[in-house]
Amino acid sequence: MYRFLLRPKWIAFHLLCLLGVVLMVNFSMWQFGRLSDRREFNSEVRQRSALETVNISELDLSDPLAVQWRFAGAIGTYDPSEQVLILNRSQNGVAGLNVVTPLILDDGRAILVNRGFIALSATPPSAPLGTVRVLGTVRVSEQRTSGQATQGSGEQSEFFRLDIALLGEQIDYELLPVALVAKASEPSEGPTIASINPPELSQGPHLSYAIQWLIFSAAVIVGWVLAIRKSLANRAQTPLFIG
Prior knowledge:
Low-confidence stretches: none
Mean pLDDT: 89
Largest sheet: 5 strands, mixed, barrel
Strand order of the largest sheet: 2-4-5-8-6
Distance between the termini: 22 Å
Order of helices and strands: HEEEEEEEHEH
Number of strands: 8
Structural class: alpha/beta
Helix content: 25-40%
Shape: elongated
């Protein structure tokens, strides 16, 4: 009765269904993995953001990743001659730039401070003069992402990412291995520059996508079963002629 299932066209159909199920289950597992990564990221940000705010000089910076997302303060003076812009940024649906200026600390070293976001139409504001107190979030160096343009060589005033090592090649100070994303400063910034939004601590669409892929794979299995049952029913209704 089931011998027809071993015919070439049916074997091709079985393999196609099997391939579809395997791919969809793998897509689902990938989304579950991304969900797990997202939850771990959210937990890390929440835990470190809740730690006591300290002066950046008091942090152990031997492992920058271990202190990322902590709140820290820094006191120093900005060097506007070394200011750069980070391109291709957006905030609240507005395209713009990030303004990054090195803050020179008492020991002669410097920390890159992402002072905030400005719209493309705005002129980068001058950094506050004199002694500045900055409170912000510790961030590690940004890495080049897939598809992002390669930075040109030579000294430049515009960058595609806040790459501390790359910026260190043209800045005359010894840079700390982390940057500070400013939340507040004294003296305060001008009205044209806005604080960088904190990361969104949601689960994203990964759970719904994972479930959808499982539903799709189940639908393929159900379709495969129904196709076989329909073929069996059609064969049972076909009269046999003997003569």
